Fold this sequence. Notes:
By secondary structure, the chain is of the alpha+beta class. Helices cover 39% and strands 31% of the residues. It is built from 3 helices and 4 strands; from the N terminus they run βααββαβ. Strands 2-3-1-4 form a 4-stranded antiparallel beta sheet. It is globular.
Amino acid sequence: MAEGDGVANQGIRVRLGGTATERDIGALRKWLEREQPLDERVRAGELRMYERPGTDGTGAPMGVGMDILLVVTGAGAAVFFEELLGQVKRAVSAWLANRGAVETGDPPAAEVEPVNVDDR
């Protein structure tokens, strides 16, 4: 496989669970969009962010109803994918800490994992 083959299908799924609300999904997406390393990759055309219906392993809708999906694009994407995954995990952790400091109640559980974006 040549470098970059299959990269168009790589993505990172961010899923909130537990006490998560639709408002949390929107707030987290805005937070991710403002994170400098992620914003730079979006502006360079290397990354796109989407919300998509959340599903379980069988494709059935679940939970809050939306995942945030970051899709890796561009020829050199395979080179920075692991770095990007770490950046997203740190950004989600920072958002959770911030949410816990400014809002009452328990912050939602968060899951950040690499995915093949064709698997729905």
